[in-house]
Amino acid sequence: DDGQFNIAGSITRSDREYGDPLAPLIEYDAMRGHVFADGQFDINDDWRWGFDGKWAADSSYLNRYDFFGRPEDTLTSNLYVETFDGRSYGAGNVFSYQDLRLTSLEEDPLVLPLLDYNYVGLPDSFGGRWSFDTDFRSTLRQSGPNTRRLALASGYLIPFIADFGLVTTVSASVEAAGYHLDGVTVGTDTENNVTAGRVVPRLAVEWRYPFVRGVGGVRQVVEPVAAVVAAPTTGNPGTIPQEDSVVIELDDTNLFSPDRIPGIDRADTGQRAIYGLRGGLYGESGGRLVGFLGQSYRAPEKNGPPATTDIREGYSDYVGRLDIAPNKYFDLLYRFRLAESNFELLRSELGVAMGPPALRLSGDYIFIASQASAGLFPDREEVSAELTSQLTDFWRVAANTRFDMTSNGGSLEHGARITYEDECFQLELRYRRDFTSSVDVEPGSVYSVQFVFKNLGDVSAVKSGSK
């Protein structure tokens, strides 16, 4: 009555290979399996708790048997409790990880606990809002750094709209974080009982000046946008380990963010100017053509976050987006990144879907140049496509493919499926040809049949007349 849970699993006995893919070890007649379980339960109107647990017997099991599509590289398990009260939210979490990759740089931590509280106030008499956030995280490892972190942040945001249409948004915030660390590297030594911390005040001002007009049922919008962000340049002591701010990527979604770095362990410091142009055409029936192009400039600083190709001194690369959706039968989203020095294409992402349910084609394309990772990784270029057809109310078919388009690439995967589905039952015939390999998984073809009985044990379905 107050929640639900789901459990899925498998068990088999088979030979398996493990260790070095070039010289694998073999375990004969091994017992193998997996368990996925999740649930969520209401305690009362304001509190609920839940869990999401994932476990596999070994690193290649899910890849080999492919129960629910391509598996994740890391299985994350989570136990949580959360509360909602007006404009505030609080949560307590425990996280554990099972790394399924063949190599790992360090031991995965047990996060016990991660406590969050977030509050956003009502608009005051001036139209501004206060916000307050707090975070406590403890990470435990048998070998490697163990950290305890307490972080606090408070801010105020207020918009102003001038009579001539200029929209100005001013925000000010202060972020503070304190750390107690064991097993961290300081210089060339590993030390315990280390304390570290930082305080980062930040001021940001954003201006938008939208120009709008309507012509023949089409609304045209052109909107120049600019911003400045200022913060001290001493907000990232080297003793603070980097747990949750590892992946930093500049794109159109975070270009104007006061702090572009995810997580709390690193802060986006220093002074920046950001500028861009948005434009769009919007039809009365919901069609749209929307574009954006922007760039930022970051002043030189000392003790800032580690320089990357995404966050560096001087001018950033250009980032942009193009969204075309004239009707419900066609939708295209293209995102890109161009090198600041010569407009070379560094990143390109394209997603497209077209056609009615009777014959619908969807696909994705991604290109990431090696320069985007400072040469740490080679160029990546991949395309995938799927063609689906809803033949009748109960029958549908689909075929899909995926290619590596680099010079040494080729086919990665082909597949097809036939599905029958009604109110009570689903039958699916699948075929998949996989061209990739790893330890215990060789290129080959997989044929499978899946039966789904939708209403077994469902009292509500029985009462409604389903069988």
**Could you give the order of the helices and strands?**
EEEHEEEEEEEEEEEEEEEEEEEEEEEH
Question: What is the subunit arrangement here?
Answer: single chain
Number of helices: 2
The span between the termini is: 22 Å
Unreliable stretches, pLDDT < 50, 5 or more residues?
A: 461-467
Structural class: mainly beta
Q: Helix amount, in percent?
A: under 10%
The major beta sheet can be summarized as:
24 strands, antiparallel
| Nearest-integer average pLDDT | 88
- The number of strands is 26
- Report the sheet-strand fraction: over 45%
Note the overall shape: globular
Rg value:
26 Å
Write the layout of secondary structure elements.
Layout: E1 3-18, E2 25-42, E3 47-56, H1 61-65, E4 74-85, E5 88-99, E6 110-120, E7 129-140, E8 146-161, E9 167-182, E10 184-186, E11 189-191, E12 194-208, E13 211-215, E14 218-230, E15 271-283, E16 288-298, E17 314-315, E18 318-327, E19 330-338, E20 345-354, E21 360-368, E22 380-390, E23 395-404, E24 410-421, E25 425-434, E26 444-453, H2 459-464
Antiparallel strand pairs: 1-2, 2-3, 3-4, 4-5, 5-6, 6-7, 7-8, 8-9, 9-12, 10-11, 12-14, 13-14, 14-15, 15-16, 16-17, 16-18, 18-19, 19-20, 20-21, 21-22, 22-23, 23-24, 24-25, 25-26
